[in-house]
Structure formats: C-alpha cells, structure tokens
Amino acid sequence: MSSMLPRNIPFNIIKRCVHNQYLITKEGNGTREITLNHEKTKNSLSLAMMENLIEAINANKNDTTLRAIVLSATGNVFSAGHNLKELQMSCGLEQHKLIFNKATELMKSIIQSPLPIIAKVDGFATAAGCQLVATCDIIVCSNKSKFSTPGANFGIFCSTPGIAVGRSVPKARAMHMLLTGEPITAQEAYESGLVTKVVSADKLDEEVNKIIEQIKRKSRSVITLGKEFFYKQLNLNIYDAYKLGEEVMVQNVNSNDGQEGILSFVEKRKACWSHK
After folding, report:
1. Distance between alpha carbon 244 and the CA centroid of its chain, in Å?
2. Which residue, 69, 70, 102, 109, is CA-closest to 83?
3. In DSSP terms, which residues pair with 146 in a beta bridge?
4. Residue 74: Cβ within 10 Å count
C-alpha cells in the first residue's frame, strides 16, 4: 500500500490519499471517500474487495473529526456484484458460505457505522453492487446511472440484494427488478425511493459536498444516536418503536449537545458542539 498527496489540492481539503489494488481512500476536512478501484472486474465484490471495504469503513470510526463517509467507484460500473468466479463449485461450499457471510458483514458495517454513509453513483450498480448502494444511508446518483438485480439471468436469484432493495422500494418495483432482471433508470430509482437525489454527472461532487456540509453543522454524537435509533426502530412494531423512541429522546435531551442545542436556540446563538 502506498501513500500519496494529489497535486494542487490544499492540504486542509485532502490530508491523505491511500491507494491499493482494490480501493482509493482519500480523507480530509471531516470526510473519508472510499473509491472502488478494480475496473478489470467491474468493481466486483470479491472476498478481497469486501474485506478491504469493511476495513476502510471501520477505520478510526470513533474519531470525532470524521463526520461522513462517501462510497464511489472508478469506471462506468459502480459494482457488478459478487465475483462469480469465486462462486464456482470448485471453490467449495465453505468458501461460498464465507463470501456471503462477508457480504452480510459489509452491509452491517454500513448500517452500524456511527457515521452517515453516502453512496455517490455514476454508472451501473447491479446485483450485490445494487445491494451495497441500497444499504447506504443516502444515495446520490448521476442521471446516467442504472440499477438492477439480474441474478436470475445467471441461475442465482438475487436473494440477499433483494433484502436491501425490498426495504427501499415498494414490493411491486422490487419484485419486477428481481424477477425480470431488467435495470431501472436513475429517474425510476428516484421515483421508487431507491436513491435520494439524481443530478448530472458534473454536479455529483457538488451535491454530495452540500449534503456533507449540512451534516457537519450538526453534533456528531446526535447524528450517531439518531442513525442508530432509526435502524433499530425499523424492525419494531409501532408501539415498541415509540417506547424506544421515548427513551432515546430523553437520552438525547439530557446529553451535552442536546442541552447545548436547546440553550443556543433560547439564547439565539450558534451552537458550540462538543460532539459528546
């Protein structure tokens, strides 16, 4: 793994750029961008790629100066999903189990991260690549992007991608994607709720940066608490969700930044967050 600093970019914007055969990771100004960088396999989620992604997502995740993570990709395919060469019979049953277990670990690392994770998509996200996108907290894509779950075309139904997609879009849309394998456009993905925003490719960075700047104005600890609660309550019935919500709101109100937020509103001043 080698380290390099891009030319003509202010040090306070990008402090570090780390590049290996699978990922390019840039970090600075409170943001870590993790770029899938294995174009020869269309950024497939091979076992090695997933291990690298998990490590990059979890690295220093409790550092309070880090405020958001962006997932992006090189080339015109965000990710083609699992590397089917690793799923051949010759690889063995235990290897297959390991691959799908690692995929679950990757998705959980996104959900359980204390940081908002934003997918920045400019191309095709398919199968487990679509699952990866759908699992992110916020998804911004270019208007040329497409999304599909075509596993049945190759004899492997997109069961696990369907978990993330089915929790993002209405049943009829999810089943159409899963049963036909036909891709949906960026606009269709937006209308279905799969993505947050669609912009032209040249506006992608600008739009993602706007979102990050909004997040950075908030308390990190409050954002973390809110994200954790959101995913917990999704799996509860409405009464249990409200019960847990009451507890979380009391916890939030009595936190350092909860009280600072209230005081700053009462005193008509800008909040000074401790991020604790």
Report:
1. 25
2. 102
3. 124, 185
4. 16
Q: Give the whole-angstrom CA distance, residue 258 versus residue 126.
A: 41
Q: What is the pLDDT of residues 167-191, one digit of tens each?
A: 999 999 999 999 999 999 999 999 9
Nearest one of 111, 10, 26, 136 to 74, comparing CA atoms: 26
- Report in angstroms the alpha-carbon separations of 197 from 32, 161, 204: 20, 21, 10
Collapsing DSSP states into helix, strand and coil, what is residue 125? Answer: strand
Take residue 179 and report the two structure tokens written for it. 């049963």
- 3-state SS class at 185: strand
What is the C-alpha to C-alpha distance for residues 269 and 263, in angstroms, rounded to an integer? 8
Amino acid, single-letter form, for residue 96: H
CB burial string 43-56: b at 16+ within 10 A, e below: bbbbbebbebbbeb
* 228-252 residue pLDDT tens: 999 999 999 999 999 999 999 999 9
Q: What is the DSSP letter of 42?
A: T
Please name which of 168, 153, 167 lies closest in space to residue 84, comparing C-alpha atoms: 153
